[in-house]
Amino acid sequence: MSEFVRGLRLWFAPERIREEGETPDYRFSLANERTFLAWIRTALALIGGGFAVDQFLPGLAWGIRAGLALGLLAAGVLCALRAVNHWVRCERAMRRGEDLPSSRFPALLSLVVALVALAMVVVVLFGWEGR
How far is the C-alpha of 90 from the C-alpha of 39, rounded, in Å? Predict the structure, then answer.
């Protein structure tokens, strides 16, 4: 079974993580869980922002409004999926005594949010009607 599939199965059966390595100090597992919850809060905020753009900017040209909303919604979905993936990867690394995994996802998420924010600045400066 590939490492990817094995990791994905742990999303839905986290008790199987106990089969690997040794139990780390519970404080590290709790910190990992708090990080997971922070990612989920971020995902919810992005999803809420996507819906807000769509609902509260009706005067904005449809293509621009949909693009901004979909960018935020997609970032929220990716953030939620990444949260559980990161939690599993970190928990496994701690149990195995390995270095914690590194990730490019925070940089990618930051770029998406910055691009949407930049687009919103342009919208605010030049008006809602897409002139």
Answer: 14
